[in-house]
Each structure stands twice: as structure tokens, then as C-alpha cells.
Design a protein that fits this description.
Layout lengths: L7 H9 L20 E6 L1 E9 L5 E9 L6 E3 L4 E3 L15 E5 L4 E5 L6 E3 L12 E6 L6 E7 L10 E8 L1 H4 L3 E7 L2 E7 L4 E7 L7 E3 L15 E4 L2 E6 L2 E5 L6 E5 L2 E7 L4 E5 L4 E4 L7 E2 L12 E9 L6 E9 L12 E8 L10 E3 L16 E5 L2 E5 L16 E3 L7 E2 L15 E5 L5 E5 L4 E7 L14
């Protein structure tokens, strides 16, 4: 921050004596006398992460954290400002750009860490929040001042593991031969295959212990392939079955939105559905499946995944008008037995008026050497704690990785992968060939296991952060 020293007495005196230059000598401007901070938020922060390779060597790399995703509460009684949900471990809070809004545009001052010197707050200057900082707000008429203490909470240590809770052991889940879970409308929906038919199980996200089969309103049995053909977009689930696209906001009542001959539905952004057609070409629909357009690829379509497919759609960290879609899966094992790594594609979806319609980019595993994502059965990827998080069963083809041994994470959109140091499978975890995971709206990570029928929900450790209230009565 610029070291602009300020005499508070001089500031107050100058504000009080301000008069209008536009009117006559008797026209004085009346300035508001109240002083308060109305809003506080963080900009983009850097996070430094240390990982260990398979050889035991440590390496540190930089990621970014979207500070605006962490809500700050303002206690106007205690005059404190803080974030109840801590920033991730390793976040640099010594160089923070923040946005502070004061009532009636009052002047905001920042107290020096080591003295009583006050400096003007500037929204473009970085502030050291490694310790609590004092702010002073001066009313526009200079008659009132209010002091606040700002605390920016960060995980104090890397979590040893997730805190896991076994939610259920369910026979319908145990006997499934394929699964996919999605969060929808406060519920967790689990689409299951049983060889010759499918089913949808549901539980409130606040429960997880009781799983109820849903009777969908379509006049045909749910196909066993339904679990491979489910995506979510705009608060709805979309399902491809028997040549039709269906849409639902609860998993029980479905309506038809389009017709197409597809190999499978694979992904969704906030405005488009993506699918593989019968020729295994990647196509998209901007009208809920009514019409489809071929997507541009920067590499051969032979490199597209055809099985164990999952996707993540996340807002760009640098542009509010764009999203990053990551498509992850495996190629057919019979056609490509030599694959060791998963197949990963990424697309920048630009919704601005200056959209350039960028193609899908292939993430070449040969460029990543030992830091590629292994080719695992039932491979599933979600977005969690600012990273892509992947897990799966026994290695396919040339991959000899043992199943359910590690979670893998990537902080750069799927290019480089490491064994996660913050998430490990829970004690007592047992799973057969079918496996899936999903995240809920409250930041929980869910695991669903065939064979054992186990359902687990976990959440990253709070890292020793103090518990703060998150609501106040006016």
C-alpha cells in the first residue's frame, strides 16, 4: 500500500468546512453524518501448493483462489468483519486486493500494522491480512468515526483427510452394475443400472441414509444405459433415452425437449448440451436437444473418450463471460488396449458478444509423463476445493493401478495431476466395479459404492479455524 500518511484532525477539519461553490454564499451542502462499512469482499488471490511426486520429490506451484466466492460477514454491533468459511490452506493473504464499500461514501482508512499511523484505503493497493487489521470509517461530514477489525481466515494446516461419515448401506446400491450421481434441487439423485433396466434413487442432501426409488412419469421402463446419459444444466437434469432428450427438475417428472440419435450424452455448460453422435463425433445443442451442431476439435476425434465419462463446467477465473468445460474419460478398451492415461479435453465457452467459438483442446498425456491421470474403471471427476478431483477403480488396459487407492487432483484444468494430499478414501471403504461420486450444494463430497452398497459423505477439514456466527439479528 502507498505509504500516504494522514492527519485525521486535518481531514476532519477540511471536510467540515466544505461549502458549495455553485450557489450563493448562504448555500451550504449538508453532508451525511453516519459512518459504517456496508460490504467487504476479496479479489483473486494466489495459492501456493506443495505436492510430492511418485519419486518423493517435492514441488511447489501456484494456483489462484476466487476470493469473491468466500462471503464476509459484517457484525455492526461488535464492529468485526470476517469470513466464516476459511480460504484454502496455502492462500497468500499478505498481498490481498479487497473491495470495501462505506455508507454514503465515507472515507475508509487503514491502520498500520506496527503503529497508529492511518493511511487511505485504495482499492488497487494490496493489503497484508496475515494478521487482523484495523479500519476506520469517517462520515462524510467528518463528525463521526467507526472502527472495525478485519480478520481473513485461512486453513491453518493442510487437512489430514476429509472428515467422512458413512451415510448408508443400501441393497439397491450394492447390486448396481453402473451408477452416476447428481445434485438437484436439494436432493441427491443416483441413476443405477441393473443389467436389463435402470432405476433412479433419491435422498434429500440433508439425509443420505434413506434412498427411495423414484417412479418416473415416462411410459416405458428406464433404460439400463440411463446412468451414462445424465447431465445437469440450469437447475434441471437432462437424460437421453431411446432417441429422446428428457428434462426434469426433481428426477420424477420428465418432459421431452428434443429427439436425436446419439451414442451418449456427455456434458453440459450453462447453456448447451454436449453429446457423442452415433459416429462418435462431439456435437452440441443450444436448444435443449432439439437441434445439434458439430463441435470443432483441435485433434482427431479418435482421441475422444467413449466410456467412464464425466465432466466439470466451471466459471473462468479471469473472465465473467466464459466457462471452462473439462471432459474426462477413457477410450474403448478393446479398440485401444495400450492406453495408460485417461483422455481429457477442455473447451473455453465464451458467451460474450465477442465470442470466438474456440475449439475443444486435447490434453496430450504424452506431454505430462508421470503426471497424467491414470486410466481407471468407473473414473469420475468432480470440482472440489478449487481443483479437479478424480477417483476410480482398477486400472484399464495398460494401466495397472489398483482401484480405490488414491484421489487425484489437478489445479490447472486437467493438465497435471497429483495424488491428493488432502483427500483419502475413508477407513472401512469397500467398493465393487461400479463407483461414482458427486458434490452437493453445501460443499459435501459423496461416494457411492457397488458391492458393499456404502454411501459416504465427506468434507474437508476446517484446518483449526475458529467457529464464527454467520448471521445476526438487526
Amino acid at each position: 500500500m502507498k505509504a500516504t500518511l494522514l492527519s485525521v484532525a486535518l481531514l476532519l477539519a477540511s471536510v467540515v468546512t466544505l461549502t458549495s461553490c455553485l450557489g450563493g454564499d448562504d448555500d451550504e451542502i449538508t453532508y451525511p453524518s453516519d459512518a459504517a462499512i456496508n460490504a467487504f469482499s476479496l479479489g483473486t488471490l494466489n495459492r501456493y501448493i506443495t505436492t510430492t511426486s511418485s519419486t518423493g520429490a517435492d514441488s511447489t506451484y501456484k494456483a489462484t483462489v476466487t476470493g469473491s466466492n468466500y462471503k464476509f460477514y459484517i457484525d455492526q454491533v461488535a464492529r468485526t468483519i470476517y469470513n466464516p468459511d476459511s480460504l484454502p490452506y496455502g492462500t497468500d493473504v499478505k498481498h490481498v486486493i479487497c473491495n470495501i464499500t462505506s455508507r454514503n461514501s465515507g472515507t475508509v482508512l487503514l491502520k498500520n500494522i506496527n503503529s497508529d499511523t492511518l493511511m487511505y484505503y485504495n482499492s488497487t493497493d494490496s493489503i497484508d491480512f496475515s494478521v487482523p487489521r484495523k479500519l476506520k470509517v469517517v462520515s462524510l461530514d467528518g463528525s463521526n468515526t467507526v472502527d472495525y477489525t478485519v480478520t481473513v481466515n485461512v486453513h491453518k494446516e493442510e487437512a489430514d483427510s476429509f472428515f467422512w461419515h458413512q451415510m448408508a448401506t443400501d441393497e439397491n446400491i450394492a447390486t448396481a452394475t453402473g451408477m452416476k450421481a447428481v445434485a438437484l434441487g436439494g436432493k441427491m439423485l443416483l441413476f443405477c443400472s441393473y443389467g436389463n433396466h435402470g432405476a433412479i434413487l433419491a435422498s434429500p442432501a440433508t439425509d443420505g441414509a434413506n434412498w427411495t426409488p423414484l417412479s418416473w412419469n415416462i411410459n416405458m421402463p428406464l433404460p439400463e444405459s440411463a446412468f451414462r446419459n445424465v447431465v445437469t444444466m440450469g437447475g434441471h437434469a437432462y437424460l437421453y433415452a431411446s432417441g429422446l432428450i428428457y428434462k426434469s427438475n426433481d428426477g420424477a417428472v420428465w418432459e421431452t425437449t428434443g429427439a436425436a440419435e446419439l451414442y451418449r450424452l456427455v456434458a453440459a455448460s450453462s447453456s448447451k448440451l454436449y453429446a457423442l453422435d452415433e459416429g462418435l463425433q462431439l456435437i452440441s445443442s443450444a436448444d435443449e436437444g432439439a437441434t445439434w451442431t458439430k463441435e470443432q476439435l483441435d485433434s482427431s476425434s479418435e482421441l475422444l473418450p467413449a466410456t467412464d465419462i464425466s465432466y466439470v463446467c466451471a466459471p473462468s477465473r479471469v473472465d465473467a463471460d466464459t466457462e471452462i468445460i473439462t471432459l474426462i474419460g477413457n477410450r474403448d478398451e478393446n479398440d485401444y488396449p495400450g492406453d495408460y492415461q485417461a483422455q481429457i479435453w477442455s473447451k473455453v465457452a465464451d458467451y460474450s458478444v465477442f465470442s470466438t467459438h474456440d475449439p475443444w483442446l486435447y490434453v496430450n498425456p504424452n506431454d505430462m509423463a508421470s503426471r497424467a491421470l491414470p486410466r481407471l474403471a468407473s473414473l469420475t471427476t468432480v470440482s472440489y476445493d478449487g481443483a479437479l478431483l478424480a477417483a476410480g477403480g482398477q486400472g484399464r488396459g495398460a494401466c495397472q493401478e489398483e482401484g480405490y487407492q488414491h484421489f487425484y487432483n489437478s489445479y490447472d484444468g486437467g493438465i497435471y495431476w497429483n495424488v491428493s494430499t488432502t483427500c483419502a478414501f475413508p477407513n472401512g471403504f469397500q467398493c465393487g466395479e461400479a463407483f461414482t461420486m458427486a458434490t452437493d450444494e453445501e460443499g459435501g463430497l459423496w461416494l457411492f459404492c457397488s458391492g458393499s452398497g456404502q454411501v459416504w459423505r465427506g468434507r474437508i477439514s476446517a484446518g483449526g479455524t475458529t467457529n464464527y456466527p454467520t448471521a445476526f439479528t438487526k
